Amino acid sequence: MSVERRRLVLAGLAGLLPAPAALAALPPAPRLTARHAWAGNMNDTLLEVAADTPVSIASVSKLITAWVVLSADLPLDERIRIVADDAERAQHTASQLAVGSTHTRGQLLEWLLVASDNRAAMALSRSFPGGWPEFRYAMRALLTQMQLFSFDFGDPSGLSPLNKASARDLGVLLVQLSQVPWFRDLATRPAVGGKANVNRFAHDRSVSLLSGKTGFTSAAGYCLAMAERIGGQVVALVVLNSRDKEARAADMNALRRYAQQALRA
Q1: 3-class state of residue 186 by DSSP
Q2: CATH number of 190's domain
Q3: What is the pLDDT of residue 164?
Q4: Beta-strand pair 45-49/36-40
Q5: CA dihedral 119, 120, 122, 123 (to 10 degrees)
Q6: Among 12, 36, 93, 206, which residue is least crowded by beta carbons within 10 Å?
């Protein structure tokens, strides 16, 4: 992404954060198993690895699903019933949301981001005015407004291999979401309904986590996109298609250390 395009994408956000020190002497780039990665902030790209290629992003998609619901200003206390079609569309993946149970829209959003529940994603899109077709249109419209054109969606959960984005565009999105208090709260929520937050970095007190989401499918590999406050600045950190769950965590830690060193340079 050119400097000029980045300015356009981040229009309206400038001034929220201080400009970083000149990135004069960057440290050696870390070795990652991730095939795609990006680290950056409001002003600079710190590191990029095939960062402009749209690839499957799995459950990282749920960040956009939540954003669509919040942007529509739908009542969070409205109760929504989990129906058989939600389980079917979620490919009968594990869920504590039983068919026939009812939950508020706000509770489903918590299950969506903290527990990465696929039935919650399906119920939220089904209950959206106009159903899934309008929900998908809203997903695309929100990202188009930011000129993040690499995104596409086949479902609200990320199970579909059609759910794609580039690492760079995901990073820009994470910077945006980190400004929203609701996302900051959910990013570090330790559990919902006894189900632990699926992002291990949400449980690490040394991480100033502001927003983020894990993801995995066979098409996407192991993914993690998050924003963290480092040295007084918001930095987005994205790894896509890491080798396995442990490698994903190691890739993210390596990317975090690199960003910390780069911002001190």
Answers
A1: helix
A2: 3.40.710.10
A3: 98
A4: antiparallel
A5: 110
A6: 206
Q: Which domain holds residue 189?
A: 3-18+28-264
Tally of structural domains, the chain: 1
Q: Look-up: residue for tokens 């990202």?
A: 143
Tell me the whole-structure pTM to 2 decimals.
0.89
The DSSP 8-state label assigned to residue 152 in this structure reads: B
pLDDT per residue as tens digits for the range 182-193: 999 999 999 999
**19 DSSP 8-state letter:** P
Tokens read off for 121: 């994603």
* 245-254 burial code (b ≥16 CB/10 A, e <16): eebbbbbbeb
Exposed, middle or buried by CB within 10 Å (0-12, 13-18, 19+), for 5?
Answer: exposed
* CA nearest neighbour of 223 among 77, 55, 95: 55
pLDDT score of 26 = 76
Q: What is the pLDDT of residues 54-109, one digit of tens each?
A: 999 999 999 999 999 999 999 999 999 999 999 999 999 999 999 999 999 999 99
Domain annotation covers residue 139: yes
